Amino acid sequence: MQITEQDVLVVIDVQNDFCPGGALAVADGDAVIDPIHRVAAKFDHIVLTQDWHPAGHASFASAHAGKRPFEQIELSYGMQTLWPDHCVQGSKGAEFHQALHLPRAELILRKGFRPRIDSYSAFFENDRVTPTGLAGYLDERNLNRIFLAGLAYDFCVGYSALDARRLGLSAVILRDACRAIDLNGSVAKIEAEVDRAGVVLIQSAEVFD
């Protein structure tokens, strides 16, 4: 798949808390870094997203008496999986993994900073209405095909791909540059959804400039 000037690589949440040893570690999460580095050299445009929660965020199990991580509760915008405290603003866990080196990135988009609502997608909060601003940024830059990599495949990467398609953008997931949580069948669920939405899944070796 040939890269053009209208393509953008969006690297999702490659942060310490999602990598081995982190508060919400994705198995083998740091293994996404090498394929991301290899493919990044082929793109003129790179965006990074960063989960950025205030302490006591509504998605944290610790914010709800008697609740444990990975349980679900009903919030104002629908069902919400509860997570261990992670990616708290200003913490070591919220920092990008030290091995990630993408100095040409043009934008770092922080998400999940609203205390009462979670944000998986790079485009919308979990109410699917409140925008992060990424869509407007891409539109003004005339970037209309996004290539997605990072963590986690079955949550933030997958939701970002679905929202890209909902916004009329072409979306490609670099599957070997992602790792999944696979919580209660979440991989199978997201794969069915991205297939229906017309998201393309490829390996990073299939990208060329």
Descriptive notes:
The chain has 209 residues and is α/β, with parallel strands linked by helices. It is built from four helices and eight strands, in the order βαββββαβαβαβ. It is 20% helix and 22% strand. Helix 4 (186-197) links the parallel strand 7 and strand 8 (200-202). The relative contact order is 0.21. The mean pLDDT is 97.
How would you briefly describe this protein structure?
The chain has 209 residues and is of the alpha/beta class. The protein is 20% helix and 22% strand. A 6-stranded parallel sheet has the order 5-2-1-6-7-8, with helices on both faces.
Number of helices: 4
> How many strands in all?
8
Roughly how much helix do the residues carry, as a percent range? 10-25%
SSE string, helix = H, strand = E? EHEEEEHEHEHE
What is the C-alpha radius of gyration, as a whole number of Å? 16 Å
